[in-house]
Amino acid sequence: MSKVKKTIVYWLLLLPLVVVILFPFGVMFVTAVRPRAELFVYPPRWTFSEFRWDNFVDMWVKTNFGGALINSLYVSVASTALALVLSIPAAYALSRYRFGGKGLYRNFLLVTQMMSPIVLVLGLFRLMVQFGLVNNLNSLVLTYAAFNMAFTIWMLQSYFNTIPRELEEAAWMDGANHFVSMTRIFLPLAVPAMVVTGLFTFINSWNEFVLALTMIRNQDQYTLPVQIFSQVAGRYQVEWHHVMAGTVLATVPVAIVFSWLQRFLIKGMALGAVK
Amino acid sequence: MILPSLLLAMFIIGYPIIDLAWTSLQQVSRFGQLRGFNGFDNFAEVFGDPLFYDSLWRTLIWTVAVVGGALLISLPVAMMLNDEFFGRGVARVIIMLPWAISLTMTAVVWRWGLNGRAGLLNASLMDLGIIAEPIEWLATAPLAFTAEILIGILVSVPFTTTIFLGGLSSLPQDAYEAAMVDGAGWWGRFRYITLPLMKPFINIAIVLNVIYVFNSLPIIWVMTEGGPANGTDILVTYLYKLAFRFGQLGKASAISLIMFGVLFAFTILYVILVMRAEKEEGVKEEVSASVEG
Amino acid sequence: MATAALAIGALGAIAPVQAQTRVDFTVAEYSSKTGPYYEEVASAFEKENPGIDINIQVVPWDTLLQRLTTDIAGGTAPDISIIGTRWLLDFAAQGVAEPVDGYLTPEFKSTFIDTFMAPSVIDGKIMGLPVAASARAMMVNMDLFEKAGATPPTNWDEFYAAAKKLAALPDTFAFGLQGKEIETDAYYYYSLWTHGGDILKADGTSGLDTPEALEAAKLYKTMIDEGLTQPSPTNYNREEVFNLFKQGKVGMIFTFPMLIPQIKAEAPDLKYKILPFPEGKAKATYGVTDTLMMFADSDVKEAAWKFIEFAYKDEWRTKFDHGEGFLPVTKGVAAEDYYTTDPDISGFAAGLPYAKFAPTIEYWEEIADTTVRTMQQIYLGQVTPEDGLKAAAAEINAIRAK
Prior knowledge:
The complex is a heterotrimer. By secondary structure, chain A is mostly helical. In chain A, 76% of the residues lie in helices and 0% in strands. Chain A contains 11 helices and no strands. Chain A has helices at residues 3-32, 54-63, 65-96, 102-114, 117-130, 137-160, 165-173, 178-207, 210-215, 224-230, 240-273. In chain A, α2 (54-63) packs across α11, α3 (65-96) packs antiparallel against α8 (178-207) and α6 packs across α8. By secondary structure, chain B is mainly alpha-helical. Chain B has a domain at 57-247: MetI-like fold (Orthogonal Bundle). Chain B has helices spanning 3-24, 41-47, 50-82, 88-96, 103-113, 120-127, 141-169, 173-182, 186-214, 218-224, 235-244, 249-281, 285-292, and strands at residues 26-28, 34-37. In chain B, strands 1-2 form a two-stranded antiparallel ribbon. Chain C is α/β, with parallel strands linked by helices. Chain C is built from 19 helices and 12 strands. In chain C, α9 (184-194) crosses α10 and α18 (364-380) runs antiparallel to α19. The longest helix of chain C has 17 residues, at 364-380. The termini of chain C are far apart. The chains are: A mainly alpha, B mainly alpha, C alpha/beta.
């Protein structure tokens, strides 16, 4: 098949999926910019009379969107950092050393993957109460890091396996100790893998809902998913145009960063897989 | 070196599991105060509840349909995206997009999009002349559940495709070239080279997706809250209702443990099956190690 | 490393300020005005009482019960909270609620309207104060009635006849019937009560297996089958039914006073009228109250009570009731002309003498959920009204027997 022919066939095959994926984005956008009075028109239609950009401003002011954005950023960045700081040594050990209980440790990690936060939410809540962390964003940082660790350790370990041992051994010959060889030689090589796993953790934390709903009490501590949900749930009235404006603002920046970084994600998966 | 991560996992995940097991054996007040042991009463109550079985059955349908659907779509999609064609970069970005929105928000948007009289899905279908009257997508359980499964598939595709893409790009090219020389057709190459080599990636995708999908609350909760008439309840939504609406924390804990048990059994069974199959085929140990880890 | 992280986390936690008494107050979010309103009350109070700090947490209704459940389970319950009165018995039965008889001076007590005080009394003790009240009524679209040549109904026969006429109009639904999510059961109770039935019989068993209950359910089912409601009621929650009304597509709905400010803002040209529910064997309306409850575990009950007394001053209550569109729970506010002369609000207030309240019984949420499920099954045609109600009654009796 020529490249041109392939292009046509592939795009035709992908078209249904692409349409379904883009549909919610279209819904978000045309709802977010339409005047309030045109939310409920019958028969429903995509078109609307004017772009009402003020919706975004109104929404921002009315719903403390900025605060939620900062909270979400803080939680996602901090939990990503924590997950990486804890996962890197563990993955390094799994990749480089033999030690008793290695298999057990791996299985334990797999089991932690199996527990949904929902299933554990009550127990987690009691735990956070004991630490006085309820209504504190740090409770989310700790839990997100913990729930993501299994995956990050697994990813990092398979990647670390691809970094030749000889490099570090050469450094030891030169008199460097393990710590120095790890930080000077090994870690710089592992940066791509860290980006990938970090991105993965970041997305998961950014999107998490149930735990945030349970642990966070004050509105000024809400993360974005909870903030948006609270505008839909149990209200006497849902301001759909504001909800959609919020969703657009919460989604677009992540989608952009994500489209830029996704190539690394795939590369990371591929590299991690090469044994 | 593994100690810090082990400690955190123990604290955040280990402790609540024990707490949960402890709670499930006790009589628990509406507000979670423990009122003494009652043996396996909570479990007996769960097993005597017809809604539990309905939800369990629906959970199986949900998990199998979503994971199966996601795999069936993702594999060809990944194969296309792994090939060279014009606009591949754009296509990759689009396919990955659902990953960038939180599930909750996706569900909120779809709920609005599927709205009977104001929803844009009906708008599109009516504009295209496919339907004359708006369809109330979420009014009956079969239709609503189907919609939820399709959305579930949609949001699972990016993750699954990423795993497959990673796998495909690591496949050895020389195997294909040899096959080309042998005159193997497209299907032959797929059947005898791609599929066997992709097996470990498919396995990972199955295990991780089953875990995620089995435990996934937001789509169903936001769109229908398990209704109408409990017709779209799966175990997590039922659990959530029991715990936080009805305050039956003992029974909810029991269901949590049962869910954990089901997943645990599935994973162990699956890993064993995979390992056995691979030993028979003589594939190297390393592959199974990656599934195990 | 993990412990280090925990320590850092703990430092970030809110350290209790020793010098001040802090009162945690969980507020249910009725609308976007609720939070700012209570912040205003709190800061006015704090100005007068510099030693007391009122910490307000605004929680959306849908998550309020979950929030309080986890709070109590975790030992971090607030000092006072707004709750749905229907939950009060559970709170009282578990020893979570503090009886307020000891704090309530006769003078303060006399400011409340007795009807609304009644649901808070459990085993002779006052377990909380009414904080918000509403009654339900029928709202009709007068333009549509004129066009159809129908007269607004006073009983169910007229209701049915009017529906027939309204449904004949193009692109119009006669009756907006709610069949999804919160308060789906309430829509049925309106019919149940006015047909002479009740949620519980005198002996405490479910009233759903009575002929009145059957008649009430059959009426709705017939209307669905004959196309007198919007199509697929099970896809319409409260808000969506009201939206249809605002768009002028629906002739009759059952609603609460909080809809009025919304209509005034969004559909100012809509000609509507508030009427009592159609009568069958009985007159009824659904009275709903929310309760301000004090927690038994609170260490700062004195300070909390001081704040409560402050917040019940007429100047604050009137602002609250007007802002949210509630009926007054205090005599001072009820005496305002507005509540007797305003045609909208007085339409709702008129039903108060014969208002029915949801029973204060244990497991109420579960019982209500059983009713919701049954109604949805009936609306969808999955069961006949006869079988569905019989099964629901049996299920509710089993829950009651626990």
